[in-house]
User: What shape does this take?
Amino acid sequence: MQKLILFSFVFLGLSFISVKDAVAPAKGPLSKKERQNAIKFLKDTESDVLNKIQGLSEAQLTFKPAPDRWSVEECLKHIAVTEQALWQMASGTLKQPANPDKRSEIKMTDDQVIAMIENRTQKKQTMDQFKPENTPYKTMEEALASFKSDRGKLIMYVRSTQEDLRDHVATMPFGMLDCYQLILFIGAHSNRHAQQMAEVMADPGFPKN
Assistant: This one.
């Protein structure tokens, strides 16, 4: 768990941003609005990834703008393995007793969490186990199947869960997040690397076909 929490900080390479105190959401199961917002966000960010890779040739999927830059395929492998790790962190927190006393230490709103993670102005390398070459996926198809399966399961979970996601709070290197925010974190992470895919595809050397 500590490694996963450290990973969530390192792979983003983000510095803590100044934010106002978050407004405490209502206790208990998710509200209808919270549920709808999370489902839409997870679906939209999944579609964004899928749209980025749709119709790309092998040459386009594996093109690297520079030796130290990831290809579109490598971005997808990283997204897929991270999807699993972040949910493991959230589900592990949910298995622990609720800790609503920690709510007062959450300093970011849901929107601020998303904005922080999606912001690509600061970039640093991820930990070795989350680098594309070290994931269990041998092909782009394997990574894609994993991503779609895990995202589908997460959407189904958000649609039906009655767990109190707000009163289960995880300690992150940059502050506290509740489990609802960790789910938003997952969607925002895939968006972050969908942006990276777009950067690769905008490179002048990107193959025409």
Observations:
- The helical segments are 2-10, 32-53, 58-62, 72-94, 110-118, 140-160, 179-201.
- The two ends are 42 Å apart (CA to CA).
- The chain has seven helices and two strands.
- Strands lie at 169-172, 175-178.
